[in-house]
Amino acid sequence: MTDSSPNEIAPIIGRAQGLFLSEQTAQQAVSALAAAAKDAIPHALGAGVSLIEGHQPTSVGATDALVLEADNLQYELRNGPCLSAWSEGIATYVEDTETDQHWPLWSASAAKTGIRSCFSVPLQAGPQGIGAMKIYAAAPDAFTVQDQKVLAHLARSAAVLLGHIQGSDTPQRISDTFKETLRIRDLIATARGVIMERHGIEEDEAFNYLLSEAGNKGVSLHGFAKSVLRADTRKDTPTEA
């Protein structure tokens, strides 16, 4: 396994940072960041960010349905590498979920989904931990030292942005941000259900379809999801005689 070239990674990091300056919501920003992480790290099966408000974790910016599944396992069990990265403020690396003893319940469940390794980096806004960024892989010990440095670099950029969003206004602004994140997540889930019914496909296939079509059309995932729901509404509306 060879390290990624810094010359190849730099433009991707720059692209992500440029998007941060232009995007208006936390959801859009972390989606861009997660996509950049997956692009920059060749063996990454998926990437995403967990944000924690109080002690309530929420997955945002997930590049794949498998990321959400692995995250939700941590939230249900109340432990796992991403939650530990956030709570302890240190990076965590699960080299192989089939042999890991740090988070045995989560690792055993993650292994059944096809995830064999995971690297998580805390998001620190000053002394405050606001979440964690993570990458998952289908192979054991998939991430090189260079890969880990790339994720740490991207996570620092994310923490600056998200820390500003969380610290620049009142607690109501923070609450509204998370409400919007949850609204977008529900919108995407509804659109996924429409695609499953329309094409007779499974949940993962439907989510990948949404991701692929959004990328092809050059729009955000939730933007494409809205167009799917609008089209579905028009289809169900009776026409006048």
From TrEMBL:
Note whether Nucleotide-binding occurs among the keywords: no
Q: Which domain of life is it from?
A: Bacteria
Domain spans labelled ANTAR: 168-229
What sections of the protein cross the membrane?
none
- Which GO terms fall under molecular function for this chain's record? kinase activity; RNA binding
Keywords from the UniProt entry: Kinase, Transcription, Transcription regulation, Transferase
Signal peptide range equals none
Q: What is this protein called?
A: ANTAR domain-containing protein
From which source organism is this entry? Answer: Arthrobacter cheniae
